[in-house]
Amino acid sequence: MIKREDYLNVFYNYLDTDFLKIIIGLRRCGKTTFLKSIIEELKGLGIADENIIYISLENVKYRHIKTSKELDEVVLDKVKDIEGKIYLLFDEIQLVDEWEESINSYRVSFDCDIYVTGSNSKLFSSELSTLVAGRYVHINIYPFSFKEILKYHNEINNIKMDKTKIYEYFMQYIEYGGMPSLLSLKDEDGKINALLDIYDSIIISDILSRHEIRRIDTFKRFVYYIMNSIGQTFSKKSIANFLKSESKRTSRETINNYTNFIVESLFCHRVLREDILGKKLLSTDEKYYLTDHGFHQALVDENNKWLPRIIENIVYIELLRRGYSVKVGWVKNKEVDFIAKNKNNKIYIQVAYLLASDETIEREFTPLLNIPDKYDAYVFSMDEFNMSRDGIKHMNIIDFLLGDEI
């Protein structure tokens, strides 16, 4: 596998600090590989093998560990004869009950640097905040970016990149997404089956089993509806009506629980809307985007009509990778696809597949022209000609994904 340099830079920023490093991401998005790359980096720094303790809770060797007490027994046995700083790495820590207390006790008891991974966002919240308030940092891991996919094909498959190859791989990226395990597969059926397998592991292991959902078919129809609605405003009423139309009545409370479950599993992201002029969040009609858009292609009927939404999904996740917090904007009864903020910057973005008509150009540029502040505004599309106007920058989507302007 390739080195994921952006994540390793974060690792080096916090190496040998008192912060607990929490590596969080969707199942099979590369957390374990990243954790093993950390081990290789530590060895490269001269850390002795015996000072690096790696425990995968999914490994048959450690599957018996279900409680914090059982974890403590294993860890205490491993560290008892070690001299010097200890590096503790725990993969899928959420499989251990009350793991937070054990991890906190290791921080207090040993001279150690601790890294944990997990696949559910809720598990890294209230209890952990109480025990180690202000002393932990999240490293959010996402599926491969388009830039990383090109790096993989260049370094692993020795493919020389030119404009034609880049476009070819981009069209594959649109179709199959960026889950790392798919890159070694050659045929379409293999990639689709791999995505279906990952989807099943998320739905069955991370959601149905954990939350003891009995109405399995209703829940799966709900998830299908979410995937079928990416990039569209979503209301509890609309999904209730959809399920009712399929003879699957359910309450709004249940729908609210279902949406929380799929967001906590990191399968998708909930995006709130913000009134740009009023500077306030709007309480209705959220949007949802998939952490990996390949699931949409694998589970929803293929049709070119989805391309604009898939590309919008790609841009959203890329903004998260780059450290932005993202909301959907609303100004003068028109929608702005994204308001992206970080500690240094704020930008407005519209996303289109092609600016193929005057009507489309008007639709994409007008909302940005209605924003009175002076922050940068962009329109992304697949068009190769620069169509910037009136202070709004136009950028080709591939150039955005491979560049670092934003």
Automatic annotation (TrEMBL):
Residue ranges of every copy of the AAA domain listed in the record: 20-150
Species in which this protein is naturally found: Methanobrevibacter millerae
Pfam families, sorted: AAA_14 (PF13173), DUF4143 (PF13635)
Source species taxonomy: Archaea, Methanobacteriati, Methanobacteriota, Methanomada group, Methanobacteria
SUPFAM superfamilies recorded: P-loop containing nucleoside triphosphate hydrolases (SSF52540)
Occurrences of domain DUF4143 (ranges): 205-352
Name listed for the protein in its UniProt record: ATPase
